[in-house]
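Box S2. Input/output pair 1.
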Amino acid sequence: MHSGVGEILSSGVVEAINRPTAEAVCLPNEAYTDAGFLDAERKALFLDAWTFVGIGAQIPDVGDLLPVTVAGLPLLLLRNEKREVKAFHNVCRHRGMQLVGEAQKKRPRLVCRYHSWTYGLDGSLVMTPFFGGPANHESPCIDRAKMGLDPVRCDVWNDLVFVNIAGTAEPLAKHLAPLGERWRHYDFSKLRYGASCKFDLAANWKLAVENFLESYHLPFAHPMLNAASRMEAHYSMVEDLYLGQVSNEYDPAAAGHAELPRFPGLTPAQEKIAEYPTLLPNLMLGMHPDYLFVFGVDPVSPERTAESFHFYFLGEGASAERFAAGRSRVIEFWTKTNREDMLVVEGMQIGRHSPGYHDGRFSPYHEVTTHEFQRRIVNRLANRP
């Protein structure tokens, strides 16, 4: 453990977070502001795990390229000739130049902007212009077969793209099986991509996740959301794979999109359910009877987080003109909700610089999930089970 992290996670802090929720004490301010703490989180939480990085709909065609970052590392997602989604470290093998700086469409090859070293969509090095001199593209000092892009383990689950940089995690399908079983009554094959949006949050990534994990703040920060899904109708779920909230009174009419197609075969009770699981380290999902949203966070620095939202609708609900207003209302609904969240989350980040905030506590009714999230992070960093 990083020495600074060791000081932050003193034995007293570890002991305090592992108490029952009603007695536990929240993480100290430094866990949200210290660069060493974020570095330790990246290594302990993001490198070994299956980490969400994007969706297949962002690279629908062969040759589509999407630069992403995980734990501060530049990665590249692409769609190869077999229409598979693959991931590579996004650096040229010549001098370490970032290979792809922005999303690109239908590229037959990857060309470095520095010296035009060129790679195939399988990552192989295919051209080294003038490397041996003005009229010589070859050189005995390199073996092209050994100079391809370094691959990153990558897999896709229902269009959600995950990478496992360490390469040691269990197969993705096995890892996500508990969520698949929980949601077995939802026919994922009916989902179609609808839209995406991004946000730049001036706060630590953990605060974004912690806010998502509890419904305590709904009547105070989200009057519109609370009208569609009241705080009183929520309960917490705490499982090995995921933590989160369930609402058993979600009302699409109150949210303004009652006309959208719904998952087939749902019971009347299931048509009122909305579930919001969080999968560590960085993925939050919102399953509704008529759409799914995917919410990912990427910690850019201790006090800045890149957020991405992706929306999926059912069948023609994703593209038919007669459902355009309903789709727009869903996207506007969550854009407004997230901007409301950003105000309070960024306010909490400001508070993390104050000596007036210390010894924070968890509501044993509302914040079991938030407590468990912090507990799992602390125990991972402290190498505790």
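Box S3. Input/output pair 2.
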Amino acid sequence: MDLARSVYSRDLKIAAMRALDAGSTNGEIARKYQLSPKLLERWRGEWRAKGESAFPGIGRRADPPALDDARRIAELERKIGQLTMENDFLKKALQHFRDHHPPAVVSGADACLKKSSKPRRTAKP
């Protein structure tokens, strides 16, 4: 069973909301436009919240640019703070290793090239 989703124009939605504002009941409007009363309630909520800017249509549901900019600025400031803390931690860790762990080359010869003082193992026959 394939049920196609109905798409209603912005003009129809606004006409229905204006009729509701004029005093018509949900039932009257639902019968007149052949809509579900529950759908009308959902539209009414959006109409009350956004007024004339309600029902923007497909692809225009994003927040206003000012809200997007403020959200992005806040996100970037949090990221800057996080990176600053990471840099401070790494600087302290580097300083700790410089102070407490001497380099591997002390006398000018590579320490890793010294031969072990342990006797060599012989292969078993």
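Caption for Box S3: The chain has four helices and no strands. Residues 7-61 form one domain.
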